[in-house]
């Protein structure tokens, strides 16, 4: 299956902004994070097709996964 992965803020460092990636059917968000070398605890917000989800959420062909780190500032 193909999913579109969008990375935000510091997750883009040495990676990409958005990229279509292929994974086996029923891959979870956690498995995508492992491929990207992003520890679960570093993800503040993860969205699948614009909806908040958890790391154990199974992905489907055509999904869009958006990953956000904690953002600080003032």
UniProtKB/TrEMBL annotation:
Pfam families: ThiS (PF02597). Gene3D superfamilies: 3.10.20.30. Signal peptide: none annotated. This is MoaD/ThiS family protein. It comes from Heliorestis acidaminivorans.
């Amino acid at each position: 299956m193909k999913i579109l992965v969008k990375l935000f803020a510091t997750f883009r460092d040495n990676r990409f902004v958005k990229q279509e990636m292929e994974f086996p059917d029923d891959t979870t968000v956690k498995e995508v994070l492992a491929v990207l070398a992003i520890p679960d605890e570093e993800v503040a917000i993860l969205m699948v097709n614009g909806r908040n989800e958890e790391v154990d959420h199974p992905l489907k062909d055509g999904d869009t996964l958006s990953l956000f780190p904690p953002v600080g500032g003032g």
